[in-house]
Amino acid sequence: MEIRVLKYFLAVAREGNITKAANCLHLTQPTLSRQLQDLEKELGQRLFVRGQHNATLTYEGHILRQRAEEIIDMVDKTEKEFQYIKDVISGTVYIGSGESHTIKLITDIIKNIQTQYPEIKFDLISGNAEDIIEKLDNGLLDFAVLIEPIDISKYDFLTLPDKDKWGVIMKNDAPLAKLNEIKYDDLKELPLIFSKQAYKRSSDASEFKKWFNGNFGNLNVVATYNLIYNAGLMAESDIGYVIGLDKLLNTMNNSNLTFKPLYPQLESGLNIVWKKNQIFSSSAKVFLEKIKESFL
């Protein structure tokens, strides 16, 4: 399977039309069609349903599209790393992260590195834990910042010194907005919107699950979210009360939303992780040294 052919395949998947893709690639339509047929023969799978004016991905085609995108990203990343093997320390550090105000600790280190090593660049990718972990495991990221509760036993890691505070985000005129703190009994009958990571990945022994009396099944969970911006929109639409972290949404005086902390206080730590026995680029080595200096 050639990288060139994977790029051809992705072009057709993107355009949904072999002729349009051929024009974008500066190929003839028969040449591109033959390359796709050879790829299907090599894999033993049909990748497209070909219509008169379009080409639609099959189930197997969708799988290959995801993997092909990852492979192309990995090739691009590898080429960049080798381009940057010079006397000057340079290159790109790839960091994935969930949403947390504690990321400010990481951005301060980035600023410090770029002052000392102006040729080092950073690619900061936001996403939910599952997406970030998959990219880290597939070599598309050098580091990942993960919010507890989550299993990090298979990685090397450093724990960040700050923690995120959990609470309830709601409209200013919601009944619970009058309270200074929110207890379990205040929530157990209400429609709730949970972080998907916290809801699905909490072990029975986790502090998060203990706070909710160990059984999410008794709660009225009407929705879950990966990233909190859309959860805030659901709160504004009176869909439910968002269980989320502080300082990620605007809940100040000019906002329609307010944040109230949970009581007893519930916090989540953050860890920056990387694969064990990882071979780092020179730029990633600098970042690793700096975070160890800061957090060890």
Task: Walk me through the structure.
There is one protein chain. With 296 residues, the protein is of the alpha/beta class. It has three domains: 3-71, Orthogonal Bundle (Arc Repressor Mutant, subunit A), CATH 1.10.10.10; 82-161 and 270-295, Periplasmic binding protein-like II (D-Maltodextrin-Binding Protein, domain 2, 3-Layer(aba) Sandwich); 164-267, 3-Layer(aba) Sandwich (D-Maltodextrin-Binding Protein, domain 2), CATH 3.40.190.10. The protein has eleven helices and eleven strands. The strands form two sheets. Strands 3, 4, 5, 6, 7, 8, 9, 10 and 11 form a nine-stranded mixed beta sheet that branches. The protein has a two-stranded antiparallel ribbon with strand order 1-2. α5 links the parallel β3 and β4. α1 crosses α4, α2 (18-25) crosses α3 and α5 crosses α11. The two termini are 44 Å apart. The model has no long low-confidence stretch (mean pLDDT 89).
Condensed summary:
This protein is of the alpha/beta class and 296 residues long. The chain has helices at 3-15, 18-25, 29-43, 59-83, 104-116, 129-137, 184-187, 196-201, 207-211, 228-236, 282-295, and strands at residues 48-50, 55-57, 91-97, 120-126, 143-147, 155-171, 191-195, 220-225, 241-245, 257-261, 267-275. Helices cover 41% and strands 24% of the residues.
